Amino acid sequence: MRALACVLLLASAPALAAPSGLTPVRRPARWGLGLTIGDPFGVTLKRYLGNENAWDVYAAFAYGPGVRFGGDWLWDLGRMVAERKFDLDLYAGVGPFFGVLSDPCGPGFINDRCNGDAYFGARVPLGIEMLLREAPVTIGLEIAPGVGFAPGRSGFLLDFLLAVRWLF
Predict the structure, then answer these.
(1) Residue of 40, 96, 42, 37 lying closest to 71 (CA atoms)
(2) For 140-146, what is the mean pLDDT?
(3) What is the spatial distance between Cα 84 and Cα 168, in angstroms, rounded to a whole number?
(4) Nearest to residue 39, comparing CAs of 58, 12, 11?
(5) Residue 28: what pLDDT?
(6) Which residue spans within 40-102 are E strands per DSSP?
(7) Tens-place pLDDT, residues 81-130
(8) Which helix or strand (DSSP H or E) is residue 158 part of?
(9) What are the φ/ψ torsions at residue 95 (nearest 5 degrees)?
(10) Distance of CA 142 to the CA centre of its chain
(11) pLDDT at 11 over 70
(12) I need a surface site. Which of 45, 105, 107, 147 has the fewest CB within 10 A?
């Protein structure tokens, strides 16, 4: 029940952030390619669409649990900080994932039964991204609760990761 409340709260983040006084974000359309470090650990490709929206696809090769592929649609909730050397933006999103339960598996997902079963699910990422002004690099922290389903069972998933991307 507590996990469901957390997912619902994060899913409502765009509506909650509107009156908060965050500065609207307008950034150019461009690509970002990088690594995610944490859970899941893997590679990421992000497309900034030239407004407050972006999409992100990823392949996770460790933890995750097992091997996982997914993508998220992201809404930029606003700019929290605008400094001379960097901007700090807050975002939220939603997206599906699928994968295979294989070693190693993340903590608490489907009772850590890493047995080769396929699984699928959805997650709700909430993150902070720092865009450096003097280098084509972004650095972000993200937490993403979700739920996954495998044959005969389901479980709660909590991603927590650091993403570093090179912009081009």
Answers:
(1) 96
(2) 97
(3) 21
(4) 58
(5) 86
(6) 41-49, 53-62, 67-82, 86-100
(7) 989 999 999 999 999 999 987 765 555 555 555 667 889 999 999 999 99
(8) strand 153-167
(9) -170, 155
(10) 6
(11) no
(12) 107
Are the C-beta atoms of residues 146 and 122 closer than 8 Å to each other? yes
DSSP one-letter string for 119-153: EEEEE--EEEEEEESSSSEEEEEEEEEEEEEETTE
Q: What pLDDT does 153 receive?
A: 80
**Nearest Cα residue to 33 out of 23, 48, 21:** 48
**What count of Cα atoms within 13 Å lies in the side-chain half-sphere of residue 168?**
4
Q: Which residue has the tokens 């990421």?
A: 44
**Prediction pTM value:** 0.80
Name the token pair of 106: 């993340």
Give the residues across from 148 on adjacent strands: 121, 155
- Counted residue by residue, the chain has a size of 168
Helix (H, G, I), strand (E, B) or coil at 109: helix
Top pLDDT among 46 and 25 is at 46
Token pair recorded at residue 1: 């029940």
Token pair in block for residue 168:
């081009």
